[in-house]
Design brief:
Elements (H helix, E strand, L loop, with lengths): L3 H15 L4 E4 L1 E2 L11 E12 L2 E8 L24 E6 L5 E6 L7 E6 L6 E6 L6 E4 L15 H9 L11 H4 L11 H11 L7 H5 L1 H7 L5 H10 L3 H13 L16 H5 L9 E4 L5 E4 L67 H10 L66
Antiparallel strand pairs: 1-3, 2-7, 3-4, 4-5, 5-9, 6-8, 7-8, 10-11
The chain binds a DNA duplex (13 and 13 nucleotides) through helix 4.
Amino acid sequence: MPEGPELHLASQFVNRVCSGTVFSGRVEKSAVSKNCEVPFSCAAYLISAVSRGKEVKLTLTPIKEEDGKEDTKLDAAEGGNTLPAPMDITFRFGMSGSFKLTSEDEVPKHAHLKFFTKGKPVQVLCFVDPRRFGSWEVNGTWQLDRGPCVLLEYEKFRSNVLSNLSDRAFDKPICEVLLNQKYFNGIGNYLRAEILFRLKVPPFEKARTVLEPLLCKEVAAELTLSKKLKLKLENPDLLELCHMLPMEVINLDGKGYDPEHSDGSSAFEKWLRCYYVDGMQLLRDSNGRTIWFQGNPGPMAPKASKTPKAKSWRRKAVDESGEKSLLSPEDSKPRKGKVKPERQKTPKVPKDLPQKRPRSAKAAKEQIAEGLQTDAGTGKRTTRRSRKRMAAEPSPPAEAAKESEIPNKRPRKSRTKSGKGQKAPLERTNPGESLD
DNA sequence: CGTCCACGTCTAC
DNA sequence: TAGACCTGGACGG
């Protein structure tokens, strides 16, 4: 779940479900997680959360229980009635982190940190993170080198960018700079695509070129306040969109980016206009990340670009001009050549073929081991996104890129292929591994 | 079965 | 600027 909006929604979630709830005992870390233990134990404490960009901070606050009968055994170390000190834990979510609240016997696989309620039935607040790219730090502050939050510290964020445009960081293409958390704390891959799309800024235009004009804008302003406001609302600039779009996401119903529960119809999926939308182009940026966009890629576009083939997870393109073209009947064609920025109105509901997929033996085994129920009856663990092949060769619209004569080899930037080829099995023997 | 892809950092050459 | 770090879903053979 993790760009700025998802982190913020996570903090709201924690505050909502934990308000008035007393937690108790120790904080448990999974054996597999390489993150630090959380040395906190208390007979009674509260949990609250705040977010900043792509981080969330939980605060554990010991409290005195009113009912008299406190069992002081747990916070023994301090004699008698001294409460332990509060503790902050700062989380980053990596690619797959989230918080969930469950009953004790429904604790999800990949729950790597657990907080237990005092009351019965015991509930568990879990930090769940299948890929384990997420991390936490105890008694840490916000990570140094991350800039102000695009959501909650907009003015600071804006001036941090505009007063540092001489930084070499802004020599890079705007689409890459938007992922630089020193300046754009909270922006991630879907937000950068949506931001650039709304302004039709070529993703590989140099960042400074795009942002410098906003400097004059700062000073100018002979305008009345109301005029400025109007202008701003009607023509938000790029930095304003870095605030507004995340705001839009947190105000949707739902949890923001959430592939687990995506069927093409969630508010979030309908909100997307570019990222993973049918008909959009895509390229790999110099860090190997896929940038979705429409129109001119811009002067700094990678030359013999590796063309990621995307699968679709949902696929529609909103036609802002309202009612119009119904889907052309032969839309289901792979559309090899030009992908016209034509859009279809209909959300293109997934075919909904249950897609009986033989689960791998290994997976099945794990499921059994974990005692998870699967598609049997209740458990609807099968996701049904009709992933159709993305037919969009980058086919730059106005012939923006001369095809390099490099055979269409698709260099396939060997991304990580870890554990491949030469790499020895290594520590596969770790007994804790199966506990994940 | 295998390959590719995914909301993000990190550190090591 | 490459990998490394991970799991799991979709899809191809």
